[in-house]
Write a structure and sequence with these properties.
The protein has 186 residues and is mainly α. It has two domains: 71 residues, Orthogonal Bundle (Rna Polymerase Sigma Factor, Chain: A), CATH 1.10.1740; 103 residues, Arc Repressor Mutant, subunit A, CATH 1.10.10. Helix content is 60%, strand content 2%. The chain has eight helices and two strands. The chain has a two-stranded antiparallel sheet with strand order 1-2. A hairpin with a 5-residue loop joins strand 1 and strand 2. Helix 6 crosses helix 8. It is globular and about 60 Å long. It starts with 10 loop residues before the first helix and ends in a 5-residue tail after the last helix.
Length: 186
């Protein structure tokens, strides 16, 4: 296996759009997304001497990006109110047998094709931005960054039941938004 080399002069051309689209799903707003992409490239330039060539340039940049995103979440958590309020209540209702009313739609989405669909990514970003800041942070850390529930609870001083409720409500809100903004188009 040959070792990979860095080509910083091509990073913007090769990776900026990809990082930006991914960032829009993680953070609220294009300004923050722009900033995170720039911070990622700057950090990569500063630490390019540490690149060992054992991974691809893309993998290395995404690793830096994930660290910068986590740093941003940690710094913003100080201003984040994680109390659950009536405004956070589910818009999905359940009948007496515990089934959703109305029943969820069948999405019939091919996951392979969905990951390449820019329009889907835009709708998902819009839906993610529609989440309250607390739900957005918690959902991203758990479902996108893959942090364990234990780490999230410790980081934000949450009880596991509160975390579960927040994730449940975030998923339900995303589901409703995706159904009304994406699935109705097909």
């Amino acid at each position: 296996m040959s070792e990979e080399t860095l080509e910083p002069e091509k990073w913007v051309e090769n990776y900026a759009d990809m990082l930006y689209r991914y960032t829009l799903v993680l953070v609220k707003g294009p300004d923050v997304a722009d900033e995170l992409v720039q911070v990622t490239f700057f950090a990569a330039l500063k630490s390019q001497h540490t690149f060992a060539g054992k991974s691809t340039e893309k993998t290395w940049l995404f690793g830096i990006f994930k660290h910068k995103t986590m740093d941003r979440f940690r710094s913003s958590k100080k201003n984040l109110n994680l109390d659950i309020t009536d405004a956070d209540a589910d818009r999905i209702q359940f009948d007496t047998t515990g089934h959703m009313t109305p029943s969820p739609n069948n999405w019939n989405v091919d996951s392979e094709k969905a990951t390449e669909n820019k329009e889907l990514a835009q709708v998902l970003a819009k839906c993610m931005n529609g989440l309250s800041e607390k739900f957005h942070h918690i959902f991203v850390l758990k479902e996108i960054e893959g942090l364990s529930s234990e780490k999230i609870c410790k980081e934000f001083n949450l009880k596991p039941t509160n975390l579960w409720v927040m994730l449940h409500r975030a998923r339900n809100q995303l589901k409703l938004c995706m159904e009304s903004n994406w699935l109705t188009k097909e």
